[in-house]
Design goal:
about 40% helix, elongated, 6 strands, alpha+beta, 9 helices
C-alpha cells in the first residue's frame, strides 16, 4: 500500500494547505468511473459514492479530468454530498495557473463544454479570471470611496459655513478575513490581526461568520484617520502577511464618519 493524504499523494502543495490527514489506499488505485448525467441526482449520487474511497476521479493526484468534472457541477448542487463537497473545495483551492499544469488532456473539459452548450450555467465562470475580478472589485471600492469622500466634503463645507468646528476626518471599514480551512484557530487569527499596529488605525468589534461546510470567517471593524491612512491597501497587506492563518481579506464595507 501507499500512504497518501486525504486529497492524493503527499506533496508540497498539500503541505501549504495544511492537509495532513492520512489515509491508506491500494497502490493500484481505482479506475476512473464514467460519470454521466451531472449534475442530475443519479449522477451526483454515483460521483459521491465513488469519492467515498477515492481522492480524485482518476488516480492519486489531481488531473485535468477532475477539472472537467468540476466544470459540470454548479457549486449550489454539491450541498448534501459530503464527499463531492470535500473534493470540489480541494480542486478549487488550486489557482488557475496550478490547474493549467495538472497532468492529463484538456479534451475532456472541451468536450463537456460542447455537450452542455447553453445549459443553465456557464462552466467557465466557475473558475473565472481572478485578476479581472480583483480589478473590478478594486474599481468598485474606489468609486464608493470617492462618492463617500465627496459627500463628506460637502458636509464639512456646510459645517464650516454654519460656523461649526471641523472634525478630523475618519472612516470605518469592515474587513472579511477568511482562514485556510476549518482547522484554523480563529481566536489566534483575530489576536494576530489586533496586534497589527498602524498609525491612525484602531481595531474595533469582531465576530465569526459562517461561510459554509463548517468553515467560518472573521469580520472585524477598523476605524482610521483619513489623513494618516489614505488607503485600505495598507491594512490589507499587513493582514495578508499573517499567512499561517489568513487565506484572503476583503473590504466588506467602507463608510465615512
Amino acid at each position: 500500500v501507499d500512504l497518501v493524504c486525504s486529497f492524493g499523494v503527499w506533496n508540497q502543495s498539500c503541505a501549504e494547505r495544511g492537509l495532513v490527514e492520512l489515509c491508506v489506499r491500494s497502490s493500484q488505485g481505482d479506475p476512473m468511473a464514467n460519470f454521466e448525467n451531472l449534475p442530475a441526482k443519479e449522477g451526483m449520487v454515483a460521483l459521491d459514492s465513488y469519492l467515498l474511497n477515492s481522492s480524485y476521479v482518476d488516480g492519486v493526484e489531481p488531473t485535468k479530468k477532475d477539472v472537467a468534472v468540476v466544470k459540470q457541477i454548479p457549486e449550489a448542487s454539491i450541498e448534501g454530498y459530503e464527499n463531492i463537497a470535500r473534493w470540489f473545495k480541494h480542486i478549487l483551492s488550486f489557482s488557475q495557473e496550478e490547474r493549467s499544469h495538472f497532468p492529463g488532456d484538456d479534451a475532456p473539459a472541451a468536450a463537456a463544454k460542447e455537450e452542455d452548450g447553453d445549459d443553465e450555467f456557464d462552466a467557465d465562470d466557475l473558475f473565472g479570471d481572478d485578476e479581472d475580478e480583483d480589478e473590478e472589485a478594486y474599481k468598485l471600492q474606489q468609486a464608493r470611496a470617492e462618492a463617500a469622500l465627496k459627500a463628506k466634503e460637502e458636509r464639512d463645507a456646510a459645517k464650516a459655513a454654519s460656523g461649526k468646528k471641523k472634525e478630523e476626518p475618519k472612516s470605518q471599514i469592515i474587513f472579511d478575513i477568511k482562514p485556510w480551512d476549518d482547522e484554523t484557530n480563529l481566536d489566534e487569527m483575530e489576536k494576530s490581526v489586533r496586534e497589527i499596529e498602524i498609525d491612525g488605525a484602531t481595531w474595533g468589534a469582531a465576530k465569526k461568520v459562517a461561510i459554509g461546510y463548517g468553515i467560518q470567517k472573521i469580520q472585524i471593524i477598523c476605524t482610521i484617520l483619513d489623513n494618516k491612512v489614505p488607503s485600505t491597501e495598507i491594512i490589507e497587506e499587513r493582514i495578508v502577511e499573517l499567512e499561517d492563518y489568513v487565506q484572503s481579506v476583503d473590504v466588506a464595507a467602507f463608510n465615512k464618519l
